[in-house]
Amino acid sequence: MKLVHFTIVAGIALSAPAISYAQVAGSTLLGVSVGELRDVTVGWSAKRQILGHTVYNNMDERVGSIDDIIVTTGKAVSYAIVNAGGFLAVAKHNVAIPVSQFQLNGDKLVLPGATRDALKAAPEFEYAN
User: Fold this and answer.
1) Nearest in space to 66 (alpha carbons), one of 89, 87, 100
2) How many separate domains does the chain show?
3) Intervals of the chain under pLDDT 70
């Protein structure tokens, strides 16, 4: 009986390194490699640092807020959807703005030269069906 238990435990112990090796970070399984994980951890969080945050112009006036981020099929963040609507965003007017036009000034997202009226006059962004 003890020999059977020993054989089972020995079999599990010998197969454990093979099982753990199959899930090493950076393998072709799900997730990211250790190198990619470093990039992810120092990158921007859309939820924490972008979405819902106020957009200012270079005169420190509030001109809208970030409602969404558009990632193109090429996997690049290309556009921010800015809500330039009315008070407390009751009347939405979403405008697509290339992310290259934004500047980061301290902890503020700045859209140089923008005014609330100019954003409201821009064509409204609508999601494809």
Assistant:
1) 89
2) 2
3) 1-29, 86-90
